[in-house]
Write a structure and sequence with these properties.
By secondary structure, this protein is α+β, with helices and mostly antiparallel strands. Helices cover 43% and strands 24% of the residues. The chain has a domain of 136 residues: Roll (Nuclear Transport Factor 2, Chain: A).
Length: 265
């Protein structure tokens, strides 16, 4: 049936469902369909639907449906669990790789008794390292950095050893860079020999060193100059094989000041 609006346009009125056009309801699904279309059911029809729902066929259908719903729910849960386990596995692998790449080697000072057995051990630090080792490292730094050789290859080895004695990104490294730029080791015209006279600790981390540098000139003979330096050291345990082989105790010079001296007493 059509009506006309004020502007002359037709308006179609929705036709309500006719019960004669629809089959009688027999199942809960039919009841839902009828209810969605606005058709009211009689008490007799509702009773018939309830009786149909209790038949063996409907009970079997419900159990069948419940089983597959449970299976579908279980599959969804297993998918979530599997995805979670995969994420945990990825994080575990990444963590293990990072841990493997950041392995640190901690050297220990071991004291051995007269029978060859190790007794109290402790981590290597400035208080646990023997003073002779620290003194030796300070002396090596002075000799390697101040000596000059006419053999270029040998001089480069001395310079590399000097850098191995200083801590990375420390004031000592910056000062050594400035010193080598001002006095390039491989451009020396005359050899310079260094003789250590004394290395004395003045505190736990600071040492005073005195040495003589002898320069063999061409006509003036051997010229000697005496120097005095204050060097600060620290222990940084090596974390890779290269540092273990070159500086196993991890004793590094972190800062130094050097000046020429006229008193060697």
């Amino acid at each position: 049936m059509s009506l006309f609006s004020r502007k002359g346009k037709s308006i179609t009125k929705k036709r309500l469902p006719d019960r004669g056009d629809m089959p009688p309801p027999k199942s809960p699904e039919d009841e839902e369909e009828w209810t969605s279309q606005g058709v009211a059911l009689s008490d007799a029809e509702r009773s018939a639907i309830e009786s149909f729902a209790k038949t063996p066929w409907m009970n079997s259908k419900k159990r069948y449906t419940d089983i597959y719903q449970a299976l579908a729910s279980s599959v969804s849960q297993w998918r979530i669990a599997t995805f979670t386990m995969m994420l945990l596995l990825v994080f575990s692998v990444i963590g293990n790789v990072m841990l493997a790449l950041s392995v640190r080697i901690q050297p220990y000072v071991i004291q051995v008794d007269e029978h060859g057995y190790a007794i109290p051990i402790k981590k290597a630090d400035i208080s646990g390292v023997n003073q002779r080792i620290v003194t030796s490292q300070v002396g090596l730094f002075i000799v390697d950095s101040r000596s000059r050789l006419l053999d270029r290859e040998a001089q480069l080895i001395f310079a590399e050893d000097a850098y191995r004695c200083v801590a990375a990104d420390s004031p000592a490294e910056r000062k050594l860079n400035e010193y080598f730029r001002a006095s390039p080791p491989t451009q020396a015209k005359f050899p310079v020999m260094v003789e250590i006279r004394s290395i004395i600790p003045i505190s736990q981390n600071t040492y005073r060193a005195r040495w003589v540098e002898s320069t063999a000139g061409d006509t003036s003979g051997i010229v000697t100059n005496t120097y005095e330096g204050i060097l600060t050291v620290a222990v940084s345990p090596p974390t890779n094989l290269e540092n273990i082989l070159t500086n196993p105790m991890g004793v590094y010079v972190t800062d130094f000041t050097i000046q020429e001296s006229t008193n060697m007493s």
